[in-house]
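Lab notebook: predicted structure, single chain.

Context: the supervisor wants predicted structures on file for every construct in the current expression panel, including those that have not yet been purified. This is the next one on the list. No modifications to the sequence; it matches the entry in the shared construct table.
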Amino acid sequence: MSIYVKVNNTEYPATVNGNLVDRNWNGRDTKTIYLTMSYDAVAALLPDNTPWSIVQRETQDVLDEQGQPTGETKEVVNEYDNSEYSLAGDITDHRDGTVSIKMGKPTESELSAATVTALVGQSITPQRAARLRPMIEQASASLSDGEAAKSPELFPRWADHIGETVKPGDRRSDTDESGVLHVYRVNKGQGHTTQENWPPHSTPAMWTIINVDHAGTQDDPIPAARGMEYEYGLYYKDPEDTKLYLCERTGEAAGGKIVLQYLPHELVGNYFTAV
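Prediction complete. Output recorded below exactly as produced.
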């Protein structure tokens, strides 16, 4: 088997070793890449935040219907994205024609710091970030649904405010069954005091998921969810059977909206048509 590192659609023969807890670099997960090139060439090839992947190429025998070799061979290629190893570390010239570079994953604290910097424009202390958080949540109330769907991290987390009184139209963030964070809106006539066993993702009678981040076309369907607001004429992808469905109903015009407590595959023939 031959191993290559792929950068900018070009493959370079390489050897790659991994270290899940690199004690020489703050305990982060790292991969060391050995390449046959100069120190300067490696530094230019893999700076911070470079998308890269590992490519494995292997020649295998072609087998007939009985599982016997035919005398022919084929190349099997597997590619694995490693772009999450985005930090360029130490580069070492081994003086034998090879140079190694260590690529590392950001630590949790580094990711948190980067998120804070992206939000406020500069690096600040955790204490200052905690003081700013309520202001960020308050400001999120002015965002449109489209903006909200793209930035659920800005909204108050439902789980952090158990016991608060919410009114129709209020928006909170919550994870769905798959652990993905979304923004949910309190339904009309469903104001209530939040309780631990009434999370938005499992109480569609009270909350509607906001998802306007997709065009709703066959090429860009909207991920379906129980209790979400569906629009006639748009396409949805069911998370359970992963199939595509068109929201339509006799007598209803495209553009009309309805909140449904079921997934598309459960309402075929009534509100959805399988595509």
